[in-house]
Amino acid sequence: MGRITDYVNTLSPAEREQFKDLIDECEQREDRIQQNAARAQAAVNQLHEQQRLLCLKIQELESAGQNLLETVSRLYLRSLPAPTKMH
Question: Domain locations in the chain?
Answer without folding.
Answer: 3-70
